């Protein structure tokens, strides 16, 4: 009788450990897919912004309403597009793994960086951060 209770307890412990491992693997997969989706959406905004810029460099200000996004891509208000002093910026709040995914997707393009209190850190160095870009954002600079 005691041995059957012991074996039942051991089986429950093993099942719990296996379920925990499966949960961790699923969580990692979801995080990876989320990063890829966020990076892809950001890159679509960058592409639309570049299309706007090459067609006719717009005046300073908010450019979000001026870009043409693919029909299948919904507008994301957390991704902002701004023109200031002849430079263009696409920026969004950073999330874990987003910047690394962008670096992978763009082969470490120096147009992308992370904003901090001192500026925008890109692979080629630090750029000045305009006041309208908050700290902790992923930034594309044109």
TrEMBL record:
* Signal peptide (residue range): 1-25
Task: Kindly give the Pfam families that the UniProt entry links to this protein.
Answer: PilM (PF07419)
User: Which keywords belong to this entry?
Assistant: Signal
Q: Does the keyword Signal apply?
A: yes
Q: PROSITE patterns per the record?
A: PROKAR_LIPOPROTEIN
Does the keyword field hold Manganese? no
The name of this protein is: PilM protein
